[in-house]
Design a protein that fits this description.
Blueprint lengths: L6 H14 L3 E3 L2 E5 L3 E9 L7 E9 L12 E2 L7 H14 L3 H17 L2 H5 L20 H10 L1
Antiparallel strand pairs: 1-2, 2-3, 3-4, 4-5
């Protein structure tokens, strides 16, 4: 696969950009505590090819234990395009996943969807994702402790 942005070029760009914006760096992972949340930008090498990598943005809820998640309580993957688009997508993701009212609303929609499409049904291939799309795929990776916290505190 031909990548639009070389991993090393993205890392060099990220070093400067995130430092200027108050992020702390450890290896290829940048974090910034913004009060109730911590933002994470992580560049992960592929275990299949030394030429491939992944961009994993995440958001931690600071009131919840972080030890069970490396990427964030909310996380996704950004497609590799150009540096400006990657950074913009990261900040768009962070804006969505630090908006407590929006998160709670999306969680309620996801819970309703999950009741209509329980795991057993999904595993059997019986969920129709076109007729009944998932409100947010991010919730597939959210730990139960975070879901409980959102329902009570957001």
């Amino acid at each position: 696969m031909k990548l639009l942005v070389d991993e090393n070029k993205l890392i060099e760009y990220a070093k400067i950009f995130f430092k200027q914006n108050g992020f702390k760096r450890k290896n290829k992972r940048w974090t910034k505590d913004i009060g109730e949340f911590t933002l994470v930008f992580y560049i992960q090498g592929s275990s299949y090819s030394k030429d491939d990598y992944y961009i994993r943005p995440g958001v931690f809820i600071n009131a919840i234990d972080k030890t069970n998640s490396y990427y964030g309580h909310f996380h996704t993957q950004i497609e590799i395009s150009n540096t400006e688009s990657i950074i913009q997508e990261f900040f768009d993701f962070c804006e969505t996943w630090t908006d407590k009212q929006r998160i709670k609303k999306m969680l309620h929609e996801f819970i309703k969807w999950d009741k209509r499409n329980p795991l057993e049904k999904r595993r059997l291939g019986q969920a129709d994702y076109e007729k009944d799309p998932v409100p947010s795929k991010v919730f597939f990776g959210v730990p139960q402790i975070a879901i409980d916290y959102i329902l009570i505190n957001f």
